[in-house]
Amino acid sequence: MGNGHATLTINGVPVPVAPNGTFLGYLPVPSPTAPRYELDVRNGTDSAHLTVPVRVPPARPDLALTGRLVIDSSSVSPRGGSMTLRENEPIRVSVRAPVNAAAWVSANGGAFPLVNTAANTFATDIPAGQMRSGSTLYVARGADTVRLALMKPGIRDTTIAQYVSLGDAAAQTDTDATIIGRSTPAGTYKWMFVPGTIVQETGRSGDNVRVRLDSQLEVWVDETSVKPLPAGYPSPRRTVGAMALVPAAEWVDVVMPVSSPPPYLIEQDLHHITLTLYGTQATPDIIKFLQNDSLVRSLNWVPDASDRIRISMELSQPPYGYLVLFEPARGFILRLRRPPRVSAARPLEGLIITVDPGHPPGGAIGPTGLTEAAGVLPVSMKLKEILEQRGAKVVITRTTMDAVDLHLRSVIARRANSHALISIHLNAFGDGVNPFPNVGTSTLYFHPQTEPLARLVQAGMMREMGLRDLGIHYQNIAIGRTMWMPSLICEGAFLMVPEQENAVKTPEFQERFARGVADGIEAYFRLFATR
Ligand SMILES: [Zn+2]
Fold it and tell me: What is the whole-number distance in angstroms between the Cα of residue 511 and the centre of ligand 1?
């Protein structure tokens, strides 16, 4: 930050300086031999120089075809970490080495050759049991040999099943205490389990535990959510009895009597919900429709496998939201929320909206040091004020700069029975993305039913702020973990761009950002107005 009239070069490349003296540049990564940015600033006869050292990864080794044998030892896998697998499960062993070398693993008294699969990559799959007592990777060419010890896997004997509880059964009735399941150890979440769901443990990788949901599917959960059950614990026998539809004023319950919570997955498209229950059988020969219901038109179930059932529901309109509950006396319950009753004249009257000023912890930082957390707070307070003027009841997740846990934010919205959760953010790019062609306004959402709200909020922001339209994006956002209401993230502007950071500090821009979002929310709820 300095003087807007100064001229700046970084490593000899001219970089424009904004009127407030800040700048944003996009430059190549310096070479490993000179890992630094040299900033030269001139203003008339004045000048200043600054050296900013950076960490540059070492260049990949040259895998020459002649001379002493060199391999890329950083590419050898698996070396670190820990893993527990079934005896016959394959472990991928790989290394980057010159194409004219030979590579093999010596394990359990045998040799397992690696195959040159692409360019300089050699790989093979070896059953975990063969590597249980330790193994060595050899790469050789002529008289040169390189040898490296590989990771020693743990072996899980699955001939006798070891059952675990996901989370604490005592938290079973806390609908906000869900356990997240992923298809890969580091992947994004796909499943949400009720605490006390019993599954079989089949493997480990670092802090992640692999569990079996039924005969065809395994998923990964955090080690912290896994509670071991005593050896010899019997398999959970889950059989869904006669299902019932129980309508209430604000929702319809699909009640599935079952003795313990099944692992499940809910899939949703516009007028359909499909519920898959894993490790579960069904004998629902009677489906009780307690009274004619206007939301659920039909309900069918099919046994997808001997231990999996799929229940599909045809709805008369898109589901507004839903909640999964387990009540020991009633069973597994899918609660489908009805859309709110809305008046065309004052669409927001009486609705509950949760406004979430994004961060802290974390968040972007602008060139003058404005944090995203500080930048979004006045916008959120203005949004609250506007929504209240239009008749809504507003819950705000923070009013100070104290950190609020990311997952608590959607819990706050759910507990308040909110009709929408609106999270206010300012955007930034990670390293390696050229910001200049990519800055503007965007909206992120996760649930299919949020899409119309996302479009209208994006349109509202475009009208008021006039930045580039980056559109709406489906993303696996954390606030989307509550399905009870539409929820989205507004990325109004880019905090890392000097001009946009500057605008965020002005009451005029804050007001426009807030009004754009409020107009979008209002337009969305008008869609539900009874004519
Ligand atoms: Zn953010």
Answer: 19
